Automatic annotation (TrEMBL):
Name of the gene: aroK
Top-level EC class as recorded in UniProt: transferase
Keywords from the named record: Amino-acid biosynthesis, Aromatic amino acid biosynthesis, ATP-binding, Cytoplasm, Kinase, Magnesium, Metal-binding, Nucleotide-binding, Transferase
Quaternary organization: Monomer.
Keyword Lipid metabolism: no
EC number: 2.7.1.71
This protein's GO CC annotations: cytosol
Protein name: Shikimate kinase
Any one GO BP annotation for this protein: amino acid biosynthetic process
Length: 169
């Protein structure tokens, strides 16, 4: 049987998966894996360079392959915001851990993210896609894969990490 000792964080870009993830790992006495850094390591390129070179669909293929190959145990795994576009990867992550959706409102997304173009976000329908379009497109996908949902609007990183820890313990 697969080891389900991992906590896998999903959610909108800027929801705090990376920032909160490491705090959560300390609270839960787990290791920490940032999937974005695995993608960079395995491609030897920055995320933005991969997106620029391969386009959104190409980046999603690379992300799918890297996430599907994760074999971590007893870790908090922070995914990138676009992980939910890869069904194979999400199924693998559900087999090796509990999927926790860090939910934020559209207003929080807007405040956290700033400029979409600067942030290196995957815009599947091209650069004309607004932040609102992105939120509406992704929200049902995060909900589809979530096993536990934790709203982290208006919480500090530490308070949000404690709330997630209580939800999973
Ligand atoms: N609870 C919070 N309160 C205030 N700011 C936050 C909070 N969580 C994250 N931030 C800030 O939002 C920004 C994005 O956070 P972070 O990089 O952790 O997001 P992410 O979910 O990992 O995004 P991505 O999907 O792009 O990897 C950072 O500047 C971070 O400091
Ligand atoms: O939400 C997104 O589209 C992304 C978020 C980042 O974490 C990276 O995975 C990448 O820049 C794409
Ligand atoms: Mg991150």
């Amino acid at each position: 049987m697969a080891d389900k000792s991992n906590i896998v964080l999903i959610g909108m870009p800027g929801a705090g998966k990376s920032t909160l993830g490491i705090v959560l790992a300390k609270i839960l006495n787990k290791d920490f894996v940032d999937a974005d850094l695995l993608i960079q390591n395995q491609s030897d390129k920055t995320l933005q360079k991969i997106i620029d070179a391969l386009g959104p669909e190409g980046f999603i293929e690379v992300e799918n392959a890297v996430l599907s190959g994760i074999s971590a145990t007893n870790s908090v795994i922070s995914t990138g915001g676009s992980a939910i576009y890869s069904d194979e990867a999400m199924k693998h992550l559900a087999e090796i851990g509990t999927i926790v959706y860090l939910q934020i409102s559209y207003d929080s997304l807007k405040t956290r993210l700033g400029d979409l173009q600067e942030r290196g976000v995957v815009l599947k329908n091209g650069v004309s896609m607004s932040l609102h379009d992105l939120y509406d497109e992704r929200k049902p996908l995060y909900e589809k894969y979530a096993q536990i949902t934790v709203n982290v609007d208006d919480l500090t990183i530490t308070a949000a990490a404690r709330k997630v820890a209580s939800a999973v313990e």
